[in-house]
Amino acid sequence: MGRGLSGWVPRIMVAAAAGGIVAVLMANGIGGAALALVVLAVVLSVAMPSSPAPTLVLVLVGLSVLVLGRDPLAGPVLALIPLVHLFHVSCAIAGTLPAKSRVHLSALRTPALRFVAIQAGVLALAGLLALVRVDHVTAPLEILALAGLAAVAFLMIWLIYRA
Fold it and tell me: How far is CA 33 from CA 27, 37, 114, in A?
């Protein structure tokens, strides 16, 4: 067979992340037609990871969180963040690899490091937001948020024109 992991491993990662997403949604009261749509989109995503189905999963999860009406820093919402990100990254990898191919672990190192770095940043941001009072937002915090938004916009423009 050759060295490396089977091309099915990213698809198994998609299924595992999707299973976690569905479990969190079910545990928090999402059911019926909404859950059926999520499960259908998940099954399509596992079968066809480079189709629009993963995007539908992301939209449906976002709408489900909105319908729950929970605090954005609640446990279930925070649990969905790495699961949805892992689902997204796994679909991207599975969509580019044929199922019968082989992939070396070294090829997955960069995406794994990027995943961990992004999740660390998100966790740090969630921790910072947990410290901010909800009833009163100070002007320096608003200015800092606008500067951060401008920096992200500048970075995106730079990355687009650099390519």
Answer: 16, 6, 35
pTM of this structure: 0.78
Q: What single letter denotes the amino acid at residue 92?
A: A
pLDDT on residue 2: 60
With helix as H, strand as E and coil as C, how does the chain read? CCCCEECHHHHHHHHHHHHHHHHHHHHCCCCHHHHHHHHHHHHHHHHCCCCCHHHHHHHHHHHHHHHHCCCCCCHHHHHHHHHHHHHHHHHHHHHHCCCCCEECHHHHHHHHHHHHHHHHHHHHHHHHHHHCCCCCCCHHHHHHHHHHHHHHHHHHHHHHHHC
pLDDT at 97: 87
In whole angstroms, what is the distance from residue 35 CA to residue 13 CA?
20
Q: Which residues of the chain have pLDDT under 70?
A: 1-2, 133, 137
Q: Kind of pairing, strands 102-103 and 5-6?
A: antiparallel
**Which among 152, 79, 148 is positioned nearest to 119, based on CA atoms?**
79
